[in-house]
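Fold this: malate synthase
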Amino acid sequence: MPEAERSGCRWSAVRNGARPEQTRAKDRASMVIRHGNKKYEGKKNFQGVGKAEFRSVSWEQYSQEEVRWVQLPAGGEEGGRGQGSSRKRSSRARREEQEKSGLPEANHTACSVELYNCCQNPAWTEKGGNARKDSFRSRKIDKGSKGLPSDRTGVNPHSMELSPPPTGLEAESAALFTTGSLHFLHELISTFDEEVEKILQLRVSRKAHLDLSGELPNFLESTAHMRADPDWRVLPVPPRLQKRHVDIGDMAPCDTSRFIRALQSPAQGIQVDFDDGNCPTFHNQIKGIHNIILAVNNRLPGAPHISRAPVLMLRPRAWNMVEHNMMVEGKEAPGPLFDFGLLMYHCGRTLLEHQSGPFFYLSKVENLVEARLWNNIFIWTQQKLGLPLGCIKATVLIENVLATFEMEEILYELREHSAGLNCGIWDYSASFVNKFGHRQDFLLPDRSKYVNMEKRFLRSYMDLLVQTCHRRGALATGGMAAPLLPHRQHTHSYSTVLASVERLKLLEIKAGVDGFMVYDINLIKPMQELFELHTEGDNQLHRLRDDVSVTPEDLLSMPSGGVTLYGLKYNIAVGVLFINAWLSGKGHFFYRGQVEDSATAEISRSQVWQWIRHQARLEDDSRVVSRQLVTELTKELSTELSRLCPSERTKGSN
């Protein structure tokens, strides 16, 4: 929006949905919510509100091309879906309004395939014309189509297909895929599927641009004013999220016995995982979601009441994952929408009523556009289900080097729904290979010897994440401790493992994190005691880390070191064992005293590929890493791996 217009008029950014994204924290007191003839001012419960109107907005424009600005007439604004409001306006009326305002109508998540610069020059066009699809305009399910089994599903069989339930899960499947949930899933997926496709195209475009240009990421110039603004904050999180000291990580809910033990544990939260720690077979997805429904509704045997159990931090699959067992309008459903939709439909309201959610982890987010898409999905879902705006809270996992340069922007996009940011070591390290793997100067050395949170690039990443979060009133959490404590206490091996975990986690506490995760339930109490010993209160939000000054060079500084034969063998072993576990329907396994999941499998695979690509020489051997050498080592390891797997799996089953 032109500067003169922005400073001289009152504007409302409207998207067929109530979204308080056009206000800073200091402006939120002036929000006006209209529903029929009723008016709500200030920070009110948004339950049942049909449309949001922001008449006192002094928002510094963030991404003008990506918001449809409408000057509010004296008599009000366009109607929403709430009671007493008009239906959606015609496309002609929208065009006329846009022409009157002289402002561009833009696609808020589409991508330019030529250049990333999504905030500076988003020429969102397709085949020469603006082919924008309003993300909040839901497609209707054609109930009048021939052959529609309306008495069974209410969904056009030609627009939605669902695989038969896995053997033995017929009852669970029927409980999940009700008439209402199928309608909700269809509308959710058909509304946002194109937007998911666009962000995946944006990833490809950005990667190609980095490869061809040789450029390196940097902080966005177009959002510098937003980063420089000291006033805005994320909304405070609910009481149950104020203390996040120790969460259980990699908790695949299809593992019923471990899920119950986690619910019985003293942990602050549980990362209920459909991503890194889970193998998304149809059986696992249905079993896992059904177990969550039982737990939320206090029907899971042995589990405490949901209000007394650790908080469930639900982690749907990442954007690139699909659900092969559901087709919507001829396309496989995006995995994260399938997971999120079922969880929200069946559990959202109950979790809210018990002040225990709905809370989520969002993995593999790479930039502000992806965060904005999640925010749009949250708003749409809350409206559809009649839930208060802002009740969904989400922690974004910063697992990609590109996202590190947009952490403030990600918080800003999700500021009404943010539960903070999380940092982890292995997916983040693997992203360097994914984005810059062809460049010799980004050769990542042996991770088992040279890569840890004390290295400059990872220490800077954690320091910046903590500073960014606390500056904006958001919680900052660390990664997961993967080691498994030996069963016998008071032994040398037990003390050694515990001391190692305590040393690394103490570094995170001193950096200012508000919590972190462990896999082993037996590590919960020692880590909670570590927090109590070195911190005061529920969190460390008071530690603003003004001492931190991180540059792009700090974030992109590769650690020195080489490649070892041990490290190469370890990476090969993890890759092979993960494939074996995956084909067995498991998303994680145990090897040499710690849990391994898709995150460690990804860094292992990435390093082997990169070492072959650059013909890295082993520092403890004269050989060069090649495909032939990797093949030979894989054959040598096969006997050892087949012998170790069963014992390691048994040892780690706690």
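The chain has 20 helices and 18 strands. The chain has three domains: 3-101, 243-555, 565-651.
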